[in-house]
Amino acid sequence: MKTVARIAVLFLCLLSLAAIAQKAKAEPQYTDSLVGAIDMNEIRKAKELIKRGVPKEDYIDGLLMASMRGRKDLIALILERKIDINSISTRFGQAALHQTEITGDLVTAEFLIQRGADINAQDSNGQTILMGAAFQGNKQMVDMLLSRRANVTLKDKQGRTALTYAKTGARPGIIVPILVSAGAKD
Predict the structure, then answer these.
(1) Alpha-helix runs per DSSP H in the chain
(2) Which of 5, 46, 62, 177 could pair with 37 as two cysteines, CB 3.0-4.6 Å apart?
(3) Which of 85, 100, 118 is the last residue of a domain?
């Protein structure tokens, strides 16, 4: 009986997920938006929207989604529209570079930095990309940011530094000594 019940629950979950996916694809307000086109990997449509023109906030949100997806071609197209690479999205509360910390995408991070992304940019909570990378234990991202002179003393809105994040993060034994050798203090 328990097996039948589990199968029934699993089946209902799968049906729900399929319905949600179908609805997302059918909702024109999402799939017709720049963020939606990038998120759904409809690159031709995204390029069309960028060239045709969208409101400034849509470009900023699109820049974040393109950064999260590692789509340097779309990032370049959006930046051609004179969008500030360091703009903080009102929808997501972050700048494009923060998305690369989330995904761990060093190549896209370097691409954004070469185009003027501020490595010390703080999101709406005051967190920097270094704080996020330190918490995730992403040694390569931390090393790259420190080589670019990321500020190890910045604090978020709750007074936490990258060192604080590292101590409670995924790999404190690796990240904490790196930050301390770069001048981080409690």
Answers:
(1) 2-26, 28-31, 34-39, 43-52, 56-69, 72-80, 96-103, 106-114, 129-136, 139-147, 162-167, 172-181
(2) 46
(3) 118
Our measurement of the distance from residue 36's CA atom to the centroid of its chain's CA atoms, rounded to an integer in Å, reads 15
Residues 132, 52 share a domain: no
Question: Do 92 and 127 reside in the same domain of the chain?
Answer: no
Tens of pLDDT along the chain (186 residues) come to 444 444 544 444 344 444 444 544 555 566 678 888 888 888 899 889 888 989 898 999 999 999 999 999 999 999 999 999 999 888 888 999 999 988 899 999 999 999 999 999 999 999 999 999 999 999 999 999 999 999 999 999 999 999 999 999 999 999 999 999 999 987
Under DSSP, the state recorded for 40 is: T
